[in-house]
Each structure stands twice: as C-alpha cells, then as structure tokens.
C-alpha cells in the first residue's frame, strides 16, 4: 500500500475542492471576454489535481485520454451545429473523473456536487448577469440586414410570412423548405426539425427565412 503525506479524509477533501474549482472556474472563464484570473486558477487547479492523483497512484492513462478527448470535442462543439459533440465530450470528461482511483462511488458523489454548484453558477451568470459566451460574437453574424438598417433585397420574401411550407431537408437549424414548388433556404426557430414536416414561416428578414413546426 502506498503511503501519502495526506490522510484519507484530507485527500478526499482536496480532490473534491480541486474538482469543484476546475468546473467553476471553467464556466467563469468561458463567459469572460479574455483570459482572466479564472483561467489562471483553472490551470493551477488542473495541475494540482493531476499532481495529487498522480502522486497517490490514482491517476490512470485512460482518465487522461478521456479528459483530453472530451475537452477537444467540447471545443469543436463551439464551431459545429448540433449538440452531439458537446454532450459526448462532457460525458467523456465526467467519465474521466469517475475512473480516478478505485472508489467510483466516492468520485460520483464529488462529481455530482461539483456539477450542482456549477449549474447554480451558470444560472447566476446567464440569468442574472446576462452574460454570453464571447467566442460566439466572433463566429456568429449579429449585424442586422433589415430595411431600417438601409439594406434591401432583390428577392423580397416578406410576403411569405404566415404561409405554410414543407421541409425538404432536416433543419439543424438551417436547411431547405419547399413553398409553392420553390426551394427556399430556411432556418428553424431553434429546435431541430425533421424532413417532410409541415412548417409555418414566422419571420423574414432579407433572404433569411425563419420557420417553426405547426
């Protein structure tokens, strides 16, 4: 049996503390406009977690691989439409924590509490402080092309508002609909819409057509 300088209870408390700090500072840094003290603390906490579990022999290569792959998938999710990569990446990261050491139930409790604290932090950041992920400002076009902004279109589709159409392809959220025999590029109101579903056109701005299911 390996001997450590920490008692078991102190070791468990340190694992829980570092795990919570990693999750909490990751969310705080994600919503920060630039690299901040939260990012610095996140790096230190991650290194501390690796060193602590490595010294005690609890850290295994499978945990490292899962964590690394999960983080990569969550980063890719920021640039890919859909939530599959993000969900898979999050599950891989959580799984990497569960596989540390031999006491999975202990790590599961630590992980659950850390996630609850992180969820509370996320609600406060988004709902009360109205924060948005700064990266989205660089990859999403937010400029308005409305008539009030001085834009006009040779293909005015404002008359389509209120009309029903059929999805020719799945909308994830963008795709193609068919109205009066014509193919039209469209975007769902937010949710995924399957192929061959009847939709109604609720909003048109320039060439942007927004639909929702009936």
UniProtKB/TrEMBL annotation:
Protease as UniProt keyword: yes
Pfam family name, one: NfeD
Protein's cellular compartments: Membrane
Single Gene Ontology BP annotation: proteolysis
Gene Ontology CC, one term: plasma membrane
Segments passing through the bilayer: 12-31, 37-57, 64-95, 107-129
Highest taxon, organism lineage: Bacteria
Domain NfeD integral membrane, chain residue ranges per copy: 15-127
Membrane-related topology note: Multi-pass membrane protein
Main location: membrane
MF-aspect GO terms: peptidase activity
Alphabetical keyword list: Hydrolase, Membrane, Protease, Transmembrane, Transmembrane helix
Location of the NfeD-like C-terminal domain: 159-212
Name of the molecule in the record: Serine protease
Provenance organism: Macrococcus carouselicus
């Amino acid at each position: 049996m390996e001997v450590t300088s920490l008692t078991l209870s102190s070791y468990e408390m340190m694992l829980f503390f570092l795990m919570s700090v990693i999750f909490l500072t990751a969310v705080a840094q994600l919503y920060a406009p630039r690299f901040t003290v939260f990012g610095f603390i996140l790096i230190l906490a991650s290194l501390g977690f690796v060193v602590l579990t490595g010294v005690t022999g609890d850290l295994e290569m499978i945990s490292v691989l899962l964590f690394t792959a999960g983080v990569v998938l969550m980063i890719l999710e920021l640039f890919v439409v859909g939530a599959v990569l993000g969900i898979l990446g999050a599950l891989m990261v959580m799984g990497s924590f569960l596989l540390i050491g031999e006491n999975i139930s202990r790590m599961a409790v630590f992980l659950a509490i850390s996630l609850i604290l992180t969820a509370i932090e996320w609600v406060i950041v988004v709902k009360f402080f109205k924060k948005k992920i700064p990266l989205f400002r660089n990859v999403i076009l937010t400029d308005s092309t409305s008539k009030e902004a001085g834009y006009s279109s040779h293909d005015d589709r404002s008359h389509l508002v209120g009309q029903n159409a059929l999805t020719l392809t799945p909308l994830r959220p963008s795709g193609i609909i068919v109205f009066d025999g014509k193919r039209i590029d469209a975007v769902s109101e937010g949710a995924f819409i399957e192929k061959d579903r009847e939709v109604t056109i609720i909003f048109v701005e320039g060439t942007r057509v927004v639909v929702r299911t009936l």
